[in-house]
Amino acid sequence: MTPATTDLTPIRTAVDGKRLWQSLMALAVIGATPKGGNNRQALTELDREGRDLLTRWCEAEGLTVRFDAIGNLFARRAGRQPDADPVAIGSHIDTQPTGGKFDGCFGVLAALEVIRTLNAQDIETERPIELVSWTNEEGCRFAPCMMGSGVFTGQLSLEAARARADVDGITAGEALDAIGYAGRDADCPRRFAGYLEAHIEQGPILEDEGKTIGVVTGALGLKWFDVTLTGMDAHAGPTPMHLRRDALLGATRVVEAVNRIATAQAPDGRGTVGAFQVSPNSRNVIPGQVTLSVDFRHSDDKTLAAIVDEFRRTLDGIAAETGLGIEITPTADYPPQHFDRACIDAVRRGTEAHAYAHREIVSGAGHDAVFVADVAPTAMIFIPCENGISHNESEYATPTDVTAGANVLLHATLELAGQTAKVTAAETDA
Ligand SMILES: [Zn+2]
């Protein structure tokens, strides 16, 4: 006779993909846009409606729902050890103004589907499971992004977050109070035994390689700069070519250098010049000044530092050769994030249990999980999104991939939470 309670290998079980898909489509009705997307920005009336629906769904599953002071939702399914730190699973339900149905919502509703499956199949866990929906991940109405998880992890103070204003001068605190979702930190967990977030990839790699699951090992570190090149404004007609100090011509060399330096660090190197200001920006004046933005990313700290060193050396060279003044101002700096080995392995075993095609992947975008990883063992699960497109009304993931991602989340959650099998005949006999 095998006592089922000591076996912590997750039961081979699966979510109800149809039920999950229906929930995704039902949430997407709130703030639906004409082109099939979603506009449910953080702390708006529509966000309130979305939160109302999610709360009703959680309560229907018997979960205990609370909100902390910045409005993060925590919905708990009890474990056999009621005082053990919970395993948290979730994401966010706020969207961009022209956002899609899947960014964030997939992770929250996959978490809900995991809980519905456990309830339907009478599966208990040792640890409690805490469904989490973070406030204002997108940061479009109120900057910065990842506000709720930022406050939870201490990246940002509650006061600073509440003081952030939208374009109309309404603060995040006022908006949160107006929708009635400011709660008390004392009612909510402050520690997790683990955190798992399922999300669409928001990039093209999984689709390109025909993989169903991305086992996310961390997130790229990021360094941002503003670069100003200063030459001399002069008339485009009378000034011969060899007597010019053309800041825009120098800037094109910077753009090429950024691309070359990042490309040399494939596959994880990224380098982008995304914004340009040309002065005086006139057809018949040689540009005297150009300011441009530089965004470098890499998964490895040392490589990212080496990228920046080469960038600075290259710009010194361009300054010497062209006679332009070049000034480099750092504007943002986030180190690469490395997720927890045990959590990553739990995700991988989930994909293997279902024989899904998968690969390890590093997130190029920011996520709540990147903040949570500072305070709890964390990993993420990516599924492909069509053409790698997100933050767009046409954002799409297939029902098959949505189901697969939720199945991996189910398996990994059971592993971290220590599942207890259904009462068996053997146990009853004893
Ligand atoms: Zn997201």
Tell me the major beta sheet: 9 strands, mixed
The CATH C-level name of the largest domain is Alpha Beta
Low-confidence stretches: 1-6, 422-430
Coarse structural class? alpha+beta
Report helical residue fraction. Answer: 25-40%
Over the alpha carbons, how many angstroms does the gyration radius reach? 25 Å
Number of domains: 2
Q: Could you explain how this protein is built, in words?
A:
The chain is an alpha+beta fold. It has 2 domains: 4-219 and 337-429, 3-Layer(aba) Sandwich (Aminopeptidase); 221-334, Alpha-Beta Plaits (2-Layer Sandwich). The chain is built from 13 helices and 18 strands. The strands form 4 sheets. Strands 1, 2, 3, 5, 6, 7, 15, 16 and 17 form a 9-stranded mixed beta sheet that branches. The site of zinc ion has 5 residues, from loops.
Write the layout of secondary structure elements.
Layout: H1 17-28, H2 45-60, E1 64-67, E2 73-77, E3 87-92, H3 105-120, E4 124-125, E5 129-134, H4 147-152, H5 158-163, H6 172-179, E6 194-200, H7 205-209, E7 213-219, E8 221-230, E9 234-235, H8 247-263, E10 270-272, E11 276-279, E12 285-286, E13 289-298, H9 301-322, E14 325-334, E15 337-338, H10 341-353, E16 358-363, H11 368-372, E17 378-383, H12 399-417, E18 419-420, H13 425-429
Parallel strand pairs: 3-5, 3-6, 6-17, 7-16
Antiparallel strand pairs: 1-2, 2-5, 4-18, 7-15, 7-17, 8-13, 8-14, 9-12, 10-13, 11-13
Residues 92, 103-104, 137, 199 line the site of zinc ion.
